[in-house]
Amino acid sequence: MLRITIPEWPHVSAERKEELWKLVKLRFEGLIEEHMENKLQHIGNLWKCSKLRLRTKIKKAHEKGWSDDKINSDLKPEAVDLAGWLAFRKEAESSTCVVKSNKYKELRSKNKLAHTMSRKGYARLEEEMRARSGGADVTRADLWIEGHKNKKGATS
């Protein structure tokens, strides 16, 4: 388990990352050392997302007018000790964190089109479209339109 008080993934010690890798190898058979970087990166992303969800819950709790006691009792994960939770809350509620959150909120609001391609990318989408059409050429316009369709098939 990683402490939520560690500010960012690069601050996690190499020893701790090695311990995490050993745990992953115990859980999943057939992993080789070449998988380590990818799997640790995935763990880091999950850890970062869990901290982001906690920050969001704290922010919404404040908007609802929750007391500090209610926030601590309802939102603190069981695996986190009270001192670590209070340190995390202090960082999450700090002015620098709020400014950073507002900055990225503003940047997201400027996006005109939703991200709909997952991690496939245009190259693999083009291959897929070419295979569906029996090898016919795919225009850039058709590729762009296909790349911006949502799950229901409508363009965003």
TrEMBL record:
This is Uncharacterized protein. It comes from Stephania japonica.
